[in-house]
Design brief:
This protein is α/β, with parallel strands linked by helices. The protein has helices at residues 46-53, 79-84, 105-116, 131-140, 156-164, 191-208, 229-233, 280-285, 331-344, 370-382, 408-417, 440-447; strands at residues 2-9, 15-16, 32-39, 73-74, 89-90, 94-99, 122-126, 148-152, 170-174, 211-216, 236-242, 249-256, 264-270, 273-276, 294-301, 304-316, 324-327, 352-358, 390-392, 395-396, 402-403, 422-426, 434-437. Strand 17, helix 9 and strand 18 form a beta-alpha-beta unit. A motif (RadA KNRFG motif) lies at residues 255-259.
Amino acid sequence: MKSKSQFVCQQCGASYAKWVGQCTNCNGWNSLVEQVVEVELGKKSAIEKGRVSGKKLDFVKLNTVTPSDAKARLLTEFDDLNAVLGGGILMGSVSLLAGQPGIGKSTILMQICAEVAKKHSVLYISGEESAGQVKLRAERLGAKSDKLNFAASTSGNDIAKTIETGEFDLVIVDSIQTLAMDEISSAPGTVSQVTNCGNLIIRAAKATDTAVIIVGHVTKEGTLAGPKVLEHLVDVVLNFEGDRYGGFKTVRAVKNRFGSTNEVAIFEMVESGLKEVQNPSAALLAERTNTDGSIILATMEGNRPILVEIQALATQSNYGYPKRTASGFDINRLNLLIAVMERRTKLRLSDKDIFINVVGGMKLQDSAADLAVCMAIASAVAGRKLSEEYVVFGEVGLGGEVRSAFRASQRIAEAKKLGFKHAIAPRAIKDPFVIPAKDLRETLIKYVK
């Protein structure tokens, strides 16, 4: 055996014989880290050895296999989170939970442990906190059970060996970036450590039918840190989103082998931990004042309809170029909509600073929010307001036309439930509740008064 160095990209895993400033595979800058690998001398290649050592697989008739969904699931105290997971935490599944620091990942995991530990054996493994720190959180959240266990470790080998004992029904690993394998010389959090530790834990979970939830860190862009292969290995990938200082927080599945990725769970942080929001529309509109620049949007969060307030503010620009700022809405989409408004409605916006805010800390990914944003901007610029009887939704095209929105019937039903009289929506929707909107210019002239 002899040792040699290679440089591995921490974003994509590509390896190089020498250090370079930019990875040519993923175009990441300063992402290469030196690692030591051992090379066998005077022996067959890995491919040659693999051809000799392989053996015939044991196979079964597919008709005789019991589906995984027939197994019992571990239920949390949150009905909406159970729906996001496809009906609960499936035994033998491996889930990856990612979110910003301080948003509440450890809080929700402790609440899950508290509920599951009422009937099942649970192990909480932390590589970041001591037993005393986790105990304080458990007491605050009311997690008191003899079946709830704790271990502090950063060894991927030890954690996998513990899971292989089969003593626990649910294991929490917080977090994958703190783990390291003895056989790999690189530091914790590197591509090789995250990939191999993840593989080791997943194999142990599948072999013993143990449910595992792994916490993953995120980058400054908000994406899951580490190699993308980790997301492919696990069964479920959950994103914990929202403002860590207030507002609503959402948990959605971006990957789910056992259920839909259209479900979403909405929470708010209270003194006793995270609490499910049963009627987010009423909560978001409770403190609303109908002023210019305020429009009610009927949007969708997964399969759930929600009414949310869009606020716009337009002021005279004091600089050579106008400022555009958006909170909870894509800034590139905002610039596009402003360009459409200037071209199709003849509004002068080039000398205006425009600010958009989605109330409640919500982050919209719904294309049907276009019409509400445009009407909010026009209302703010003109100093006029929309009647309190209306909700708005619809996608705006580059030609200024208003296009149809998916799940329109659910949006309308939610608006009716909260007492609204009409919806300004695409004309393709055939419903007496809907006031048809043909194009942006006609709609602004008619309803922003």
